[in-house]
Structure formats: C-alpha cells, structure tokens
Amino acid sequence: MNQIAAQVSFAQSQSRYLGTRSQLEDPTNPGRGCELDGKSVSCSKVRRGLASGAYDFDPHQQQDEKALWEAGIHSHQEKLSTRVENGPRQTWIETIIDSDGSQGINLDELDVSIQGGGRGTQKPKAPNVVALCANGNAAGAFRGRASQAGGQVLSFDTGKDLINILKEASKGGPIDVIKIHSHGAASGLIGATQGWVGLYISNPQALAYHSIGEGGARNTELTDAILSGQISLSENAEIVFYACNSDSLASETSWLLGNKGQRGDIKVTGANNSVYPQSNSTAGVDQKGYFNTYQAGVWQYATRTRSYK
Prior knowledge:
Distance between the termini: 47 Å
Structural class: alpha/beta
Shape: globular
Number of helices: 10
Order of helices and strands: HHHEEHHEEHEEEHEHEEEEEHEHEEEEEE
Number of strands: 20
C-alpha cells in the first residue's frame, strides 16, 4: 500500500466498478469499490488514509489521461473530488462508491454528486433565501416564522421599505426565494400599520389604488425593480406571500413579471383566504382555502399548506 496508483487500480475501474459509462450515469449502480495491492478494501479506508497522509497520490503515475476519459473518469485537473490540505501538499481523493453504498466514500462528506458520463459536479449551493417580516402588532410572530426559512431575515414597515430592502439584499447575488410574512387583505399587504402603507395590487378598481399613504407602493414598483435588475432574482426564482387574502396580489404580480417583462419563469404564491399557523412550521389557509401558485399570470398548482422553511 505504498503507491496510490497501484492501490486504486484503473484497470479495475474499467472492468469492475465502472464497467460501462452507463453505470456512473445511474447513481443506483455506481460500482463495486476499491482495490489496494490486489485486495478489495473499503473506499472509506482509502479516503481516511489519504486524508491522514498515510498514502500519497501522484496523479502522474496513473494511466494515460485519454484512457481515463474513455473510461468515463475526469482528468485529474477536472474530476470532482475532495482536496485535502496537508501542509504544502494537496491530495486528490478519488470519488469512488461501493455498490451497496455502505462502505464507500460518503458523497455528503465529499460534497459531490455523480452525474451522467462519469462526471462529478459539486452539489448545488444552498438557495439564497430572503425572508421579510412586517413590523407592527404581530412582528414577533412574523419574525419567528421567517427565521425558519434558513436565510436572511429582514423587517419592513412599508411597501417602499420592502422594495428597497430587496434591492440591497440582492446586491450580494441573485435571490432564489423571497418569503414575505405580513397581514394582508384583498388589496395586498398591509405592512406595519393600517395607514395604507403596504404593498398593493395595481388594479384601478381596488380601493388601495386611490388610497395609498406615505411609504405605500403598488406591485408595479416591485415588478419594475425586478425587471430592471435592481432586484436581482435567479432563474426560476419564487416569491411566496404568507399573508391573508394575498391571491390577487400573487396572480397580478406574476402576470406583470411575465407579460410586462420576460420573467414568466418566476413563481408567485398567495393565499385565497385567511392564513393561520397550522403548526409551528407550517402555514394553512382557512375555510379549506389554498395557496395558489402562478407563472406569467397563469395558475400552476395549489396546496393547502406551505412550510415556513
């Protein structure tokens, strides 16, 4: 067990645990493990040995790179493995999995996943989530629910606050999910007070259209900021309104994004009745109502509950 080139046999990789490229394309059939000096051993032992510095790995002692590519394995410069820092030396650990998954390298530990053709890629990063909670008489409850989302938790008073906060939050990178906790009405989000200072639909027939107070905003201001890039949202981003009677706000906001601009990929969700905490981690809709989800103004699906996470 003195040279990893001899220990992790690429002849074995072509015949035993790879066989064909299709085996790595199907994660349920990844292969049979590792071989060290002609003996079958646990791949996790190989990993631990490399990590501890017990073995050295010289990629230049491996077979020709072209042959490795033909076997469905990355070149050493491109393959996704884990680099272990050991002083000035960096060691590559092969991404090899036992057939039963019980003794092979733990993909979660390595932070890798296997994709088609034997190529490995890093696991997708955690989504960039921004959870907004309205100040006011239920600020503590809204913040508690928002904190379960696992991202930034930011408070707002008015509709304009909400829009400006999202502009700032997206400067660090596109937002994947926006979750908004507030009191709501058929006209939109109420915000911190009852003074028509929230975020409202832009239908001229709505009472809020003619009654917006200082700091209040229409959803056209929100969608304009998204379409102009001032609020940066990733492809297939999602906006969820955890507010009572927010269905009209969700459907109209979705329509504006998809028809006034080219962001029909964004999903927007709102409730068609009163929202209440069904449990500590889940919101429900009263009177057998639904959270409705829209894209480009078109209804996509409905759920009875939504997780705060």
